[in-house]
Description:
Elements: H1 8-26, E1 29-32, E2 42-45, E3 64-73, E4 78-82, H2 83-91, E5 96-103, E6 109-116, H3 120-134, E7 145-149, H4 150-153, E8 155-157, H5 161-172, H6 176-189, E9 197-204, H7 208-215, E10 221-232, E11 235-248, E12 256-262, E13 271-280, H8 282-285, E14 290-294, E15 299-303, E16 307-311, H9 314-319, H10 324-339
Parallel strand pairs: 3-5
Antiparallel strand pairs: 1-2, 2-3, 4-7, 5-6, 6-8, 9-10, 10-11, 12-13, 13-14, 14-15, 15-16
Amino acid sequence: MSNRPLGSNDLGAKGESRFREICADAGLVCNQSNRDMTGWDFLVEFPFEKHTKTTLDKRPTPISCHFQIKTMWSDRSSFKMRLSSAERLAKELKPAFVLVFKINKQKEFIEAYLIHVLDKYLYKILERLRLEHSQKTGTSINKKLISFTAGQVGTRIELNGESLRDAVIQACGPDQHLYAKRKKEQLEELGFGAQPFEMQATLHAGSRESLIDVFLGRKSVRVSNVKGFESRFDIKLPLPEFIGSGTMTITPNSIETCTIDLVEQPLTRPVRFFGEIFVVPELISGKEPLFVIKNNIFELRYSRLAGMKLFIDGAVLSSALLTPTEWHNFLLLSLSLSKGRQSSD
């Protein structure tokens, strides 16, 4: 065996030659890319299943996947690839893999690691792409490198076709349409937290009471200097389509439903109402949180300092369709609160 040292091109050619041999042993069709600008070195096609319980027109789509081949010396643990190549592997809905070969000083293949561009590997690529965009270097990612440690993100396989074929089948699963759907979902959802969007705006409410009405959805408010932001991988970027001014209406979500039982005198039958509970945070309401119970005809607002207050929208009340009993109960509630003689649950 020649002792001539191998350069990076020779090392790469050696790995690609071995990969073609392994694919041939496994009965896989291996098509090499003619130009090293697509992010992948080989397109590997699996054959159709010969023996299947279904008819030919219904047998499943065979696996078709992209491979990039990396070959490195055994004393190295990590490898680098162009970020632009990593992006192409990440954005391709077909299964995509990086196969890492390790060779010893005798130029013998001793290890192989199969890296599936999904889950944590896909996460790392998308995170890096967003970071580069935030640093305004997105147009030059072909000059950027991303590093991976094969033993940490890859699965070690035997240096033969059977091991490669079985590992790819296990990674891709039996349904390639479901695989594409899964990868599409990860491309759209990885890195987002529970509340990925943020909006900043100047609200022209006029008063705190008016601001509370806006928060409770009772009125709209004019806004200016509107800015939207999206956080992904803990990197916040502006949303240009949200810049501007206009009118904003808030539709709040209740935190709980409740029952109000009004008892004017001990041992008397309670008057019952149903409603939803909303909380106006201290930032909006003032010195302490404001608890609001709303139903179709009135609001009860309560804070420790201000006590309980009944709010009635005349327009809503005049158009409300209530039974005589509901009108009777509402009048009892109004009288009771005005007199200060009530207890409620």
